[in-house]
Amino acid sequence: MMKKIFLSVIVLTMSGSLFAQSLLVSGPDKQLKVKVFLKQGIPNYTVSYKDKPILEDSPLGLVTNVGDLSKDLTLVAHKDSAVDETYDQSRTKVNKIHYRANELVCTFANKEKKTITITFRVSNNDIAYRYSLPQYGETAGCVIEKETTGFHFPQQTTTFICPQAGPMTGWMRSKPSYEEEYRADEPIGTPSKYGFGYTFPCLFHVGNDGWALVSEAGVSSKYCASHLSDGTKDGLYSIAFPATGENNGVGITGAAMALPGHTPWRTITVGSDLKPIVETTIPFDVVKPLYAPSQEYKPGCATWSWIMWQDASACYDDQVTYIDLAAKMGFEYVLIDALWDTQIGYDRMPALIQYARNKGVDVFLWYNSNGSANDAPQGPKNKMNESIARKQEMKWLKSMGVKGLKIDFFGGDKQETMKLYEDILSDANEYGLMIIFHGCTLPRGWERMYPNYVGSEAVLASENLYFNQHFDDVEAFNACLHPFIRNTVGSMDFGPVLLNKRYSRDNKGGNVRRTTDIFQLATSVLFQNSIQNFAITPNNLTDVPSFEINFLKGVPTTWDETRFIDGYPGKYCVLARRHGQKWYVVGVNAGKEALKLKLDLSILAGQKVVKYIDAADASPRMTDYVISKNGKADVTIQPNGGFILVQ
Description:
By secondary structure, the protein is α+β, with helices and mostly antiparallel strands. It contains 16 helices and 39 strands.
């Protein structure tokens, strides 16, 4: 359906030839505007929202092995149209999505008459753009050596960004794995910790003028994944390709592209406040499913012994205990983590899986991605890194009724690694297996592209709470970042809800939890993933109040709608999510003082809800609560605490 779009063209001519030209395209409500123009032969763009600058002059272009398409260009053609699509997406923050955008397609040519096309899509709060290259005569392939794509922020901007780790660093040379620490409200141009730039997504606060979230979508086997370079002192960040040493040096750092072809989408979500950032669906709006699901894949909850009982728990008896726990909770799954191949053994796995199925519980199994990309010793190893072994293993898994895999320790962001992700997903679909990735890259629209994809870690997840007290001390701070940054662009397999007071098998030693029980329960809703691997333990059935366990027995893992209510990254966050007709409103507080909020909860106006809250001494409470008829609600969130309202 074609819609009227807001597009103006200004043409200046000299001696009858095209001298300069700027193109302006806006979103349907005309608040978000993108101007595209040539600046000394270099394509540039600017972004404004409500007439306030979000991005200043920012370069565009590609450098390839068949020509430089980043400079000495002229504009040779442009056209505009409208996009109006609806689609369903059951495994993200919202189910039914209506995507409306205005599209501007610009074609530029270099001195050798080779062309590059840049397609911009602008919706009310989102921008997506990508490059397309034609076949150049008989040249039907090229290598993208560099992108000159930039994001030039005004000087008053501060950043909420996470450094990209160096290649083959960290534990058993398993990084980069998108598990570094964010810094909040830092000045633009602050050097990254490791000298490799910043991991997507990247959040920018443009002073009083707005917010912008920069990321990418549509990365498949046909391109490498990217990140942002260190910013310059005047605020210019550029697209950066993977480091040479990633994937143990195997594979190119750019992208090999068949022609005609196109790059992934660069995305920018913009708003005066944080609501569009939290609620964006742009990673999914601009991609399409790459294959049909071989069967219906079921979301749900899982128990998971490794997070609290660690490697030794990958034994037969402990897994029986956790299968029994899943059955008592009414959970759909149990996740059996690393070392099951030796500590249980391939010969005993069929009996264990059948025991689980007899209890009404299905099984996920852990695998090492391995090959040459890491030194991690845990098995099973060398089963997922090449096609023959992978298909043989998946055939065996299907024969036993296994429903999914958690695959760990990937080697970076090269196209070589993107191909491995896609091959695993595609093969797994043929055998009816869902896939969770850990020690991995950010998903980039993968929930829509790959129907058996569940979620990725790609964050400092709950395992770090077990390993290092520092991460327990800053747990609330990090939790108040993820809904605005990491989790807003893709499913996040965090492994939430740790109810032990101490992080150890006996709940007596180990690191100390700083957050409250209600905070932990709130993360089951705050963090979105269609299968939640909860970190509860068998002792929690008796050592926490029964209403906490009953809450977890009923919490959904898929959502029909998500609304941002209030918050600020790293300080506090209040979200509402709807499953069917039932709303869940949750909030967490990273501050050192109790936080008193007056919330607009018009979605629950006049309704009676169940309220879970922390008392002043941090002990959990459950009460009935009636939302006023005007939808206003007074809520106090204790330090490192939370609240939950359930319709």
